Amino acid sequence: MNTESPDTPNTPDRPLGFWLRATEALISREVDAALAAHDADRREWMVLNVLAGDVDARGFRDRLARRPKMLRHLADRGLVDRDGDDWTLTTEGRARRDLLADTVSGVRARVSDAVSPEDYRTTIASLEAIARELGFSEDDPRPWRGALRHPRHRFGLRPFAPGEPRPGDEDGPGRRFGGNPHHGFRGAGPRPDADAV
Fold it and tell me: How many whole angstroms separate alpha carbon 185 and alpha carbon 191?
């Protein structure tokens, strides 16, 4: 089947995995750029959301308490404050979280507005159906955690060779992973961008 159309001339047929990787990479790039415009990154965004109670990140608060470097950094900026054994957002921290929320919502709107509302709902429903067919469970809502870290491993494909370009890597191989072409996700644990869009 040929997928060419007047809007996408000479576009070859590509498998689902290609478009999943491409979309994930491009969403990551857009979220990173949107946050960077406010001198923020996804880790700060995640921490502020967790402290605001907007994200249920299993054990993330405990890990922050054990390794509070990020919290101390945010405290130095007046965004968080210690409340006994816990940390809370200051007024400035809540305003910062709201600003970043609006910023990420802008990316979310670009994604959802790229197609009709009906097509967007169909896309989400289709991906959910595929995931459930492949074993997705509400008991393990983030099955990529603890799996092989390279995105291509998830689809049974070979890793990218050193220097091989990937979708969304206009600046060079591995650039969105800190410059190492062998790195996949940014380590185990909650992915700050997982629910960004």
Answer: 8
Q: Are 28 and 168 in contact (CB under 8 A)?
A: yes
- List of residues 6+ apart from 110 with CB closer than 8 A: 30
Q: How many residues does the chain have?
A: 197
At 109-151, the pLDDT tens digits run 999 999 999 999 999 999 999 999 998 888 876 666 655 445 4
- Confidence (pTM): 0.65
CA 111, chain centre distance (Å): 13
121-135 burial, b for 16+ CB within 10 Å, e for fewer? eeeeeeeeeeeeeee
Q: Which amino acid is at 72?
A: R
**Strand intervals (E) in 84-192:** 86-89
DSSP state of 175: G
The Cα 64–Cα 154 span in angstroms is: 28
